[in-house]
Design a protein that fits this description.
The chain is α+β, with helices and mostly antiparallel strands. The chain is 27% helix and 27% strand. The chain has three domains: 3-97, RNA polymerase II/Efflux pump adaptor protein, barrel-sandwich hybrid domain (OB fold (Dihydrolipoamide Acetyltransferase, E2P)), CATH 2.40.50.100; 109-256, RNA polymerase II/Efflux pump adaptor protein, barrel-sandwich hybrid domain (OB fold (Dihydrolipoamide Acetyltransferase, E2P)); 292-511, Chloramphenicol Acetyltransferase (2-Layer Sandwich). It has eleven helices and 29 strands.
């Protein structure tokens, strides 16, 4: 009986794709989950794998053809067609290996599934496998990490045992609750079957997922980190099967600095200086864009294309806030076990201003305007993976100490990839602080469907006219980008002036005036 090969289910925003390349020809034998064809959409390239083992009997969509979601691309038949000896040998080899695949000390088998994604997340990518087939693991130990366009989700072991089969390799795209692997209770360690070791070794040597650099075998996630940090592969120590270098090995090397490339001697550099630089000696590196980075790029471009975005600027004298902070920072730390920063003042000032200007706190949904009777402020946090915006809920009722604690917690968990998807949804306004990186002035981009975003910048001393005299004051430029479809220039300017007034006289925040 023939098995249909179908195109993946495209997300709602993708109407169609085109067949980029067939990796098998009619008559070729294929194994289950082996890559057969690639579908290119306007956003990503999707891989289609064999649903069953057999022989590619028919190709219904040629390379370059346009295909729809779940369209039949070809069919797989049982047994061998042309090249039957090869397929038969592969089938016999698989049949022979089957009895050995059961772990000697194995118990009940479980399906390891991807987490349930929320409605706004269509799919995820297997970022890394922290355990290999046959490797002993404890209950609730992390087996794999799934990267979505918002967060990294962890998949843990359902019991003590070992992986007996991995169905979704690193880099493959998975849907909500899709089966990632088969897990067997009580397996692993000394009970690891020889066939599993052979499979792991074969997987490590398989160029489809791993890559051999010198005498080292790098997993895809490890290879990406090596490229990003420009490390010396020969100095990496692999802890995976057969010395395979895993993501964790590279992260450890980055942390302790043991794999940095050696600097060229000064003498050698001087000697090489007179020689002309030959063509082709300017190195480049190409690193795949992460799913999070793709989503950030998409949303920022959409914001500029769909909103009538305009930015208004002002400047605020930070002297009063800095004096208040210097006076009470030690007492604040003892009382609340967190440092007193500037962000708490800005969040509270923005909350008060949002109450006075409800248009700035609104959002646009199609042809409707949604006015929010609460203030949920997103705070942009920079991580190695990209910018994320966790949301502080009901900031109007929060104390400055609660704001500071929340931001510290968000920053730590964002860098560790531990933020939940629900923590980054539903904000009504956003604050971004480029000043921590030294930015003096910038134009922040809207975070749809919000209609405004406040940009903070570096505090810099400048000569200012104060009461007819020139004084050196700590000044900060503020930028408010807003959607002119919703907010008039008058309201935007007055909103920013309100924040300026509240910060220059912080007592207003306490007196609610």
């Amino acid at each position: 009986m023939a098995t249909e090969i179908k195109a993946p289910t495209f997300p709602e925003s993708v109407a169609e794709g085109s067949v980029a390349a067939w990796h098998k020809k009619p008559g070729d034998s294929v194994e289950r989950d082996e890559l057969i064809v690639e579908i290119e959409t306007d956003k990503v390239v999707l891989e289609v794998v064999a649903p069953e083992a057999g022989t590619l009997a028919e190709v219904l969509a040629e390379e370059g053809d346009t295909v729809q979601s779940e369209q039949v691309l070809g069919r797989i038949g049982e047994g061998a067609a042309s090249g039957g000896d090869k397929a038969e040998a592969a089938s016999e080899e698989k049949s022979d290996a089957k009895p050995e695949a059961a772990p000697a000390a194995g118990g009940q088998a479980h399906e390891v599934k991807a987490p349930t994604f929320p409605e706004s997340v269509q799919e995820g990518t297997v970022a890394s496998w922290n355990k290999q087939v046959g490797e002993a693991v404890k209950r609730d130990e992390v087996l794999a990490e799934i990267e979505t366009d918002k967060v990294v989700l962890e998949v843990v072991a359902p019991a003590d045992g070992a992986l007996s089969e991995i169905k979704a390799e690193e880099g493959s795209q998975v849907a909500s609750e899709e089966v990632l692997a088969i897990f067997t209770e009580g397996a692993g360690g000394d009970a690891t079957p020889a066939s599993s070791e052979g499979k792991a070794a074969a997987s490590a040597d398989d160029g489809a997922s791993d890559e051999k650099v010198g005498d080292k075998i790098l997993a895809p996630a490890a290879r990406k980190l090596v490229a990003e940090h420009d490390l010396d592969v020969s100095k990496l120590e692999g802890t995976g099967k057969g010395g395979r270098v895993l993501k964790e090995d590279v992260q450890k090397a980055i942390k302790d600095g043991s794999a940095k490339k050696a600097a060229k001697p000064a003498g050698a550099k001087a000697a090489a200086a007179p020689a002309p630089v030959a063509e082709g000696e300017r190195p480049e590196k190409r690193v795949p864009m992460t799913r999070l980075r793709k989503t950030i790029a998409k949303r920022l471009v959409e914001a500029q294309q769909t909103a009538a975005m305009l930015t208004t600027y002002n400047e605020v004298d930070m002297g009063a806030v800095m004096e208040l902070r210097a006076q009470y920072k030690d007492t604040f730390l003892k009382a609340h076990d967190t440092k007193l920063g500037f962000m708490g003042f800005f969040v509270k000032a923005a909350s008060e201003a949002l109450k006075r200007f409800p248009d700035v706190n609104a959002s646009i949904d199609g042809d409707d305007i949604v006015y929010h009777g609460y203030q949920d402020i997103g705070v942009a946090v920079s991580t190695d993976r990209g910018l994320v915006v966790p949301v502080l809920r009901d900031t109007d009722s929060m104390k400055i100490a609660d704001v500071e604690k929340g931001i510290v917690d968000f920053g730590k968990r964002a860098r560790d990839g531990k933020l939940g998807i629900d923590e980054m949804q539903g904000g009504t306004f956003t604050i971004t602080n480029g000043g921590i990186f030294g930015s003096l002035m910038s134009t922040p981009i809207l975070n749809p469907p919000q209609t405004a975003i406040l940009g903070m910048h570096k505090i810099q001393e400048r000569p200012m006219a104060v009461n007819g005299k020139v004084e050196i004051r700590p000044m900060m430029y503020l930028a408010l980008s807003y959607d002119h479809r919703m907010i008039d220039g008058k309201d935007a300017v007055q909103f920013l002036v309100t924040i300026k007034a509240l910060l220059e006289d912080p007592a207003r925040l306490l007196l609610d005036i």
